[in-house]
User: Fold these one by one.
Assistant:
Number 1:
Amino acid sequence: MSCGAVDGGETVTLKSLRRVFADFDEGGKGWLTRQDLRMAMTALLGYRPSKTELHTLVPDSTGASKIDEATFVQIMSFKLSTRDTVDDIRKKFMTLDSHFRGYLMLEDILPALKSVGVPETTIHQIFVQTDTDRDGKITFKDFERMMKYP
């Protein structure tokens, strides 16, 4: 993953990921616990990962429950590279907002999500969770938050 600027053969992003790892590697032990990883991901990605996500990233099969720097950099590079830009999110929002109202209602997202196989009950759950002010409308800000921090 690259941000464009290169210093000594490493991209700025790689350096910043290593810096985040070091910031949360208390005592310089060379690994992060699940709790360290949770705090690092919150700082880096802007959302608090669920227990399920943490257990997926740091399986407890060996009893160690820790992640080293190389693995952290690899996983976070992938997570950052798959995030949509604000422009991409706005285009998706505008595609769903076929009535040009500036917000989405359940009727706007239902056909699109059903067409890709999402069950209607799941669509209703997504809508309720995304509609933060419970007014029956998903604003761009709600939609952006959902797209950035699943």
Number 2:
Amino acid sequence: MTLLQGPFAAISGLIGLFASTGLQSTNYNATCQAIAASVSSASKVYYNGSSEYNDDIDNWATTNTENSACSFEPANAQDVGIALQLLAKDQTPFAVKGGGHSANSGFSSTPGVQIAMTQFSEVVYDESAQTATIGMGLVWKDVYSALEQYNVIVVGGKSSSVGVGGFVLGGGYSYLSNEYGLSVDNIVSFELVMPNGTVANITSSSSPDLFYGLRGGFNNFGIATTVTLNTYPQSQVWGGSIVYTEDQWDAFNNATANFVSNVTDPKACMYSTTNYVEGVGAILTILFYNAPTPPDGIFDEFLAISSVQDISTRTYLSIIELLPLISGLRSMFLWVPIEEFTLSMVQMVQNQTLRSFVSYDLVPLLPSLYSHSETPSAFPSLRDPGQGHSFVEVLYGWTDANDDEAILQLGTASAAYMKQFAVNAGQNVSNALIYPNAAPPDTPLADMYGDALETLQSIRSAVDPGDVMGLAGGWKF
């Protein structure tokens, strides 16, 4: 790890000056002013009333949105390090926002300093290494668009407006995961600003403990500014969306169960979301094949059902843009790992949607999902059959904060019921870990990280003895 001496030496006097003023821990504006006075001119601090500030504090879910004392848009890793030193000195809370797609309160929002990674927006393709270095301020639509000219792809998000940072730091399931594994399985390196302000390049060889912890461990070890991912050749793909009305659900259930039990081609994938809102139910299904034309028969049963279809040979980016993104609601995700979507499992999940304004997503993947990397990661720390290779992802949306506790109880009960249903059906998922990117508030860390938690806590203690990253929200070891 290399300490970048110049910028930190230059601000040492300023830090002492601000320390001598007897700054109160609740005087977050003073920390904002100290950051503005200490960083380079390329980095910006904004206050309430500016459009930049509004953009910086805006998050996808209102459960994770609040006014901050200021927003800070760093232009380089050195300025991130300067800010971390000042935040630590003042004990000012902060948040780090990439795409802002977390639903849990305080995960990318704060009353203190909102760090918006907006300026980390480059995508640099290295043809010789077959990698892409990606800024943590981007969303996946930006990344795929930038890589299209090279006819390559990375393992990234299924939704165009999901941010790079939380996705790759949390695990990352993709349409490409049957072929290439999770996003964390394809990480080559990170640029990381450590809690003490130093900047380091983290690889499996240079810092094996940190490389392990960052892959699934979020912002426990510092602020990652860029990530370098493996790239893969990418042609046009086949697929699109199909909408089924309720009178076709039985036929869809049979098609799904048959697809899961018979199709083992890693290029084939489906993603289905069942929605029931104000008495109206519909299923939106994404069919995907990673080539211009799929083999005969793989998707025929889905296509034969009466439905509204938008299926064609198209770009990968156009597939990503098919999923609708409803923002501006209080929101909560839940996650239920399973082994296989049998007919009874699919029917059971659909029955859950009748309970609330809610979306239940079926994501069937292959048993080989976790076999694409031999390098351990914080998540998934379990890669055996007991982890489950498919899952139900649940999204609740509502408007009234008074309903928060009731929705949490409802969702938790629904997820527990679905998991128990799978266990009772003989599926080996009783000890499966929960995906932290889709875990509801107050989920015990052990339920996400299992036996790896003690190791992760030791790594964090060594890297961040002053608990600087504890000033930020999120899952904390």
Number 3:
Amino acid sequence: RSYYVPNQLDRSAIEDILFASDDAIRALEAELSNFQSRLSNIRSFFDFHRSLLSPIRELPDELLREIFGHVISGDAIDIGSHRNQMWDLLQVCIRWRNVVQDTPPLWR
């Protein structure tokens, strides 16, 4: 802090500096917003492609049915009601939805 009181000439110079700084801040904020958007897009792209390499994609449907049966029957960790567990499995992906829908014993 300073006890300096600027004269009119100094005030004018300070106002010019503030105006230029404000413009620079706005320009940087716009660039930052652009970079954040690009980063979000790249992360989504990365996550999607990483998920394609997930080992669970290689499991045959028969093994998924067996696993889902244990989850729904309560043999696995109890994480909620039968209805919630079924709903969760149906929401993961189209393949899981098809496996669950094509396995009548899961629908008891």
Number 4:
Amino acid sequence: MHPILGRIAICFVLFLIIFPALTCQIYIIWPWYGRELSVELITLLLPFNVLVVSLLWNYYLCIVTDPGEVPDGWKPDTQSGEGYEVKRLTGCPRFCRTCDKFKPPRSHHCRQCNRCVLRMDHHCPWTNNCIGHFNYGHFIRFLFYVDVTCSYHLAMVSYRVMAASRARYYDEPTGAELIFIILNYVFVVPVILVVGAFSIYHFHSLLGNTTTIEGWEKDKAAMLRRHGKIEEVNISYNLGVRRNIASILGNNPFLWCCPTVPPGTGLSTSFQLPMVRHHNWPPRDPTLANQTPFKLPDSPWTYENGNVNPNLRPTNGQLRGVNGNHYKSTQDPISVLPPYHPDYTDPGVDAHPGRPYSPDSVSDHSEEGYSEVVRVRRGSEGYEVRPVTREQLFQEYVQDQINEAGRYQVYEPEHTLESDEDLEEDIDELSGEAGDASTISDDEVPLALQ
């Protein structure tokens, strides 16, 4: 996420917290108590303000607290009994090639923060920070205080609404008070529904000592188990409810609601139960075990067997020039025939109309002459370039020069007779008369026969 977008998200969350907290006290509760300070009013608003301050403080800690980063030069202790995670293919300890560091157990690389985070749970856009080992406790407290504060807020506003429904005319809420009552419901009700559902998920993960990423991996393993592809794999960091909460919020239950530093460094799994067997986690679909690795062919735009893809078609059926534009003659078309001639064509029509593409054709036109002309065939899998031989290039050039309008004028003689058939009939008649007559003068013989 862009830093500016992260700051905008933080400002939006602060507005959702501060606006209902202030308006419900100034425009709803304070006028209801007659704008006079009393013990009953302090008893009502003091716990609410304590909850709001605790909510803001834990939200601030979620933002500024570093979730934990792998120290430079850290290496897993393979001789200790704490256990360590290895790569599925090589069997060596997990290593991040992006950070160039070994990865401790339960750590993952965050693309948003561009680093490996210890016990990474997820990247939260509302805090513009990763939720990891050192700020996950603050995040849990933040969710807890959001739920409690919103519930307290709705209870106060609803109590005021119920009191106004049975109040007398002199105790009815004003127009401004009604507006702020509606706005508080609009702001708080969606927040408690959305954040409440999110809190239930994270409270359940806290009780089971599971992160969000590990929850996704467990769901994948459960799906493979239901389909009968793998056996049940029991890999869990669950140590019991009491110890699971203590690993995040501290050992003292009285300080679980107070901001504290979580125990441990996040580099080891001291709370992990010993494992008897070694398992691949997350489990892989066994049907993909015998799958041959994909290998690109020699030509990137052909099938694996080397044949050209028959479905590869150009995005445009017309011929293209070298620079991608359609071919167009550089000279204006000129017609040598008069407009009343039957073979006359409109000069506005392009002298070189686009021809449909054929996979066997390898010639093309160019706006920059006929040098280095290639056939470009485009499609969803890329493009193939077929070179043009010099002979084909010459033939294309000669044919184009011949077909160019106005370059050559073909002489067509006009016939004196009405048709060739009439001429043949006249010749036959004259031949018959020549057989009957002994002598024929030169004036009687047509000029064509002379």
